């Protein structure tokens, strides 16, 4: 951990390579061992599966209908992973793992000239080990790409502003990154980065920079050349229904009205960000205090800090106003905090500005308290709320124990060792989550096992699938083939119509409490067999998978799975 601002470029890039490999290993660890998490992952995965079935990688579909939730770039990323690892959790998630490691690498390399080699390496270390990174960079969702390209667009613009000799390259890279972010998530990919840049220039009293030095004459055509073709292609193929639906439903409606139960107060992100940045968020007061002390001269004398604060505040305030709120929505605001933390940790390690011992003990006490709260929740609350899961007390141990050990190193004035201890604690939590908790949770996500059961019974023979008074996208992904449709009847007449007009047998999943009524309501000419029953994590109830077929079609080999 011997960092210095004047370290050689060779040593710096060697450490960057180690950091990249460490981040990749951390994000990849057991990433493919569990089934997909409802609802976002299987929504994306099923859309990709239907693209494969249709031989069309332009128009996203879900359950046979147009899916306007997300643009195409993340599907293409998952497509690459699936070609290598197959249509499974590894293949679908490996792109996000790689993008996460590339984000850590880019953040470290791109900030070296802005803040120094040592602080940049610590910035990358923080980014790789926070709690939220262990979630977002192992998920088959568009967020990792958005995080990478938004960070690239803003840091490149800041580098262009600070280093005139490389201005053209950095500004054009910024425009290209905004375009790619737009193909990944839509207008947010350029609207908020553009707003951040404008706010920064206004604060600096330098708005004319935007058109005098901002290379608009090259940047805008480059942005359109990269960002527009897919939107035109999907518009033409869908008769513009996709573009209109995406703009109205996935953007304007989501911002103006709460969707899918995701809501919260205006201060929602003031609560989620410190949790997301654990264990390093315990040092945020120390990291932000220097900014407060130089606040009167900040805008004119410290453009890098001003830009980073504009980035952080504009992004968080924008989504604090939004009616729909999720922790993932402000992940793109974390990089400024990573940088502030990296700078402050370096100052403490180098002796340039040591932490006060009392402040360190206070910070570590907070981390210990979080660990103790996790121990209590895992030992008492989780078994009471989700009995099949059992005790998860061990999830609090990495934070609690690392806080105690780090306090010992503080007492002995071993500055580097407490930082190594906290890094090890963050990695240990990931190990515990993926080694012990993920397998336990996986058993309570029955869609994967229902799909396995159906394949055992059916082999290559035709069948149909349906869900009664219950739905999770995971069931469609794991139980269906290609672009097979999942029927969702609301009345018995609809169900009987499905039985008459679709391939037999029908595999019907429903809450176990509804099974007796279902058996009584269906005619005696049907053979109804319960082939799988399991508790489900999401709805906290037992689900049953029924195999329904005409009595005349029942044979011994159909009543028991092959093998």
Automatic annotation (TrEMBL):
Protein topology in the membrane: Multi-pass membrane protein
Subcellular location: Cell membrane
Keywords: Cell membrane, Glycosyltransferase, Membrane, Transferase, Transmembrane, Transmembrane helix
InterPro entries with a match to the protein in the record: LipidA_mod_glycosyltrf_83, RgtA/B/C-like
Record's keyword annotation contains DNA repair: no
Domain (Glycosyltransferase RgtA/B/C/D-like) ranges: 70-230
Transmembrane segments: 12-30, 90-109, 121-139, 190-211, 218-236, 266-285, 306-323, 329-347, 359-386, 392-411, 418-436
Taxonomy, superkingdom: Bacteria
Keyword check for Ribonucleoprotein: no
PANTHER family, A to Z: MANNOSYLTRANSFERASE YKCB-RELATED, UNDECAPRENYL PHOSPHATE-ALPHA-4-AMINO-4-DEOXY-L-ARABINOSE ARABINOSYL TRANSFERASE
Record's protein name: Glycosyltransferase family 39 protein
